[in-house]
Amino acid sequence: xxxxxxxxxxxxxxxxxxxxxxxxxxxxxxxxxxxxxxxxxxxxxxxxxxxxxxxxxxxxxxxxxxxxxxxxxxxxxxxxxxxxxxxxxxxxxxxxxxxxxxxxxxxxxxxxxxxxxxxxxxxxxxxxxxxxxxxxxxxxxxxxxxxxxxxxxxxxxxxxxxxxxxxxxxxxxxxxxxxxxxxxxxxxxxxxxxxxxxxxxxxxxxxxxxxxxxxxxxxxxxxxxxxxxxxxxxxxxxxxxxxxxxxxxxxxx
Length: 253
Known about the structure:
4-stranded mixed beta sheet, 7 helices, Zincin-like
């Protein structure tokens, strides 16, 4: 179903305190959004399956908010269109024989009786991951734990590879499971990478790793930032496009 402006503009009476349903004309389209006022210093924009949401300082006027939206109108339109065409993730049923993408290739999931542990066999003609389960209902948790551990190993290795090229010590690594963000970087807490990147080819993971490392030099997305990314990973543009293509069908359970 195409995204409709009205979808984001919920009945104002059903909104939490501090939130208001609004609309704005951006070019030829009417865009609905939820405005939330809070104790913050800047105006921030978020776009996800719910539509456009705007966080603003309590002192900011509606004109200030609309000026920000108009300034970023093209970006807002592109992101809303991306969400409108994104296919809804199908929740996987984890059964014996299920095939999942891991590192861009097929991985066969096998189920067995056991103490909620996993056994990797990546040397066979068909790589497998056997989940030894106390009960079938434990499968999602055991599978996620196995993939998280594999993801952490991979991410740590790639950070150790690229950080010296930037002249920095590998930063602290944390795993995330954010629904709309593949990575983030903080000078204080280090780098956060989405564990579901383990499903994608190594080139895609390398792009996300170098993207976040580059933020240690430039905490923005300026031309200087992209020059740092290109210095670490020259083919980043192709990997970035591949990430966008694969993200729409990332397995969920």
